[in-house]
Structures are given as C-alpha cells and as structure tokens.
Amino acid sequence: HNWGRNHAPCGNPSGVDTQYPQPDGSIGNYGLDVAAGVVKTPLMGDIMGYCDPKWIGSYTYTAAMNYLSPVAPITAASALSASTSEAVQPTLLVWGHIRNGEIALEPAFQVTTRPKLPQRAGPYTLEATAADGTSLLNLAFEPDEVADAPGNHKNFVFAVPLATASIERIASLRVRGQGRQAMMSTRGAGAAGNSQASAGARADSVQVGRAGGSARLRWNSRAIPMIMVRDVATGEVLSLARGGDVTLPGVRGEVELVLSDGIRSRVKRVSLR
C-alpha cells in the first residue's frame, strides 16, 4: 500500500484496484521463487489480495517498480505541465490528508527534487494565493485512498515546480473540496510566537544537543511548525519533527534541517555528534 497499490480482487477486500487484469485476483503468469527453486503457477493469488497461497504477479511487480523509479511519469491538467520536466529542480512540497471528510494540510517545504503533480483531476483543489489576492497556483486532484485504514482516510502529496521567487510571494495555501477546506499561512520570525523564544535568540533558531544516546532538537514551534531532518550524505528523511522538542534516537553525523514556517523554508546544516 505504501507503494501506491490497492487490493487485488481476491478474498473480498475493500479498496480494490479496478485496473487489476485478472478478475479472480490471481497472478495470471508463472513466477519463480529463486531461493526455494519453486515455480509458482498462474492460479496463485497476488500478494495484494487476501487469498492464499500468494505470489507477486507481473502487474503488481511492474507497478511497484514504476512507483519506486527515480523518474516517474508526470501529468497535470494545468498550465504548469508545460514547464514541468522530470529533472531535479526547486519544488514546493505540499502534503496532507483527508480523514472522514476533514481536511488536514501539513506545513509545506521547499525541496529540490523531481516534480510530482496530480495524476488526474478530482473534487479537491490546491490553491496558492499572494498577499494581494493573486492566484499563484490552482491544481485539481483526486486524493489517494489509504487501504485498510479505519474509516475513510485519503492522502495527498505533491512536489510542485515553483521558482523561489514565486514561493516567496505565497501568503497562503488552501485545500478545499466537498464543502470543507484547510489553510496554511506563513509563520515567519515576526510572528506572535517571538515572545516564546529565549532572550536574545531568533524566533526561528534551533537548539541542538544530546540527551543520552539521542540527538535533541528544541525550537519555537509557533514560528517553525515543522522541521524536516535529512541525512546529508544520503538525502534520507530521518524525521518530520513537530512540537518544539524532539529526540532523535541513534541519529549522528551531519544532518540538514529544513525549517518550515508553514510555506517557506530555511535550511540549516548541523553536526549531531
């Protein structure tokens, strides 16, 4: 499911992949267990279904590999698609979820990565607006259903190609649809949260230390609602830290802190020894 796969139609699951090629949820082709030296028959159930015994069919395998590929197909029914390429470039990472109809929009991050735009239009809209009311972004999308989650839970995440100058103009991000909406606005160092910062320190500063064998980050969460912690060497995201006081067990070495004020980001490199 984390790789974008819904269920194969076997064993009466919810969240069935309507494009699955075998109506009985079987793999539909021969497979080979290399470790055991066993041939799998086409009648076996696919790993995304509830039937046993199961194996992975070519449909699920190919879809998973496409999802994990560093170069994924990008489509969008907007003017943005004309300027979008698969090359690594500055983007605005916008993400959140919709749970039982309620929309939650998480703090955005400026990251350099390959763009990811909506694969298809839908009943929800992502909008970015400047302080003077100018529309800077408008994307219709269909969120992704989270299979096996309790209730009705859907996620969305986009890496929208935008130049830094355009991101600097954004005063608010909004997701709306089905009669609900959620908004995120910038919370810069001049926000009311300054009074919570320690004397003489910037409101958006981060204190770095150690607590036992763990690294510890402390900051003013009103000015910085979330910090993305990334390994400098690999680019791996180690934490999406919130709350103003977070310990990171086992994290050492040089890391990159991407400090989000809700929309814009500031990057700080620190050594966690």
Q: Could you walk me through the main structural features you see in this protein, from its secondary elements to its overall organization?
A:
The chain is mainly beta and 273 residues long. Helix content is 6%, strand content 41%. Strands 5, 6, 7, 10 and 11 form a five-stranded antiparallel sheet that branches. Strand 10 and strand 11 form a beta hairpin. It is globular, with a radius of gyration of 22 Å. The two termini are 36 Å apart. About 10% of the residues have low confidence.
- Find the structural class using helix and strand composition: mainly beta
What separation lies between the terminal Cα atoms?
Answer: 36 Å
Total of helices: 2
Rounded mean pLDDT is 85
User: How many strands, which pairing sense, and closed or not: the largest β-sheet?
Assistant: 5 strands, antiparallel
Radius of gyration: 22 Å
Could you tell me the number of beta strands? 20
What percent of residues adopt helix (DSSP H or I)?
Answer: under 10%
* Percent in strands: 35-45%
Low-confidence stretches: 71-84, 189-201
Overall geometry comes to globular
Can you write the helix and strand succession as a string? EEEEHEEEEEEEHEEEEEEEEE
Describe this structure in a few short sentences.
The protein contains two helices and 20 strands. The protein is mainly β and 273 residues long.
Descriptors for this entry?
273 residues; mainly beta; five-stranded antiparallel beta sheet; four-stranded antiparallel beta sheet; 2 helices; globular
